[in-house]
Amino acid sequence: MAETTNLNIRIDKELKEQAEVFFSELGLNMSSAFNIFVRQSLRQGKIPFELSIVPDPFYSSANMAVLRRSIQEANEGKFVTKTLDELRSMEE
Fold first, then answer.
1. Percentage of the chain modeled with pLDDT above 90
2. Does residue 39 belong to any structural domain of this protein?
3. Cα 30 to Cα 21: distance, rounded to the nearest angstrom
4. Does residue 5 belong to any structural domain of this protein?
């Protein structure tokens, strides 16, 4: 087995907690997840995902306004529930 060394990094506390929960669900700890990231970076010769300053269109102001309205309506009890059969009958 290869010799290991320690690496200390700084990360926002809440972000670390969220990552620990997420990686745990995948059966990984933070160390294993970071090792996977580094190995993939070296294997691909790049960061293994796209980095961009272009905002995700999902979070556009129009989408966020619709989401806020939907949440408000749900909180006010203004929502419709349908069974799967009812939704399927609407397609016909």
1. 74
2. yes
3. 10
4. no
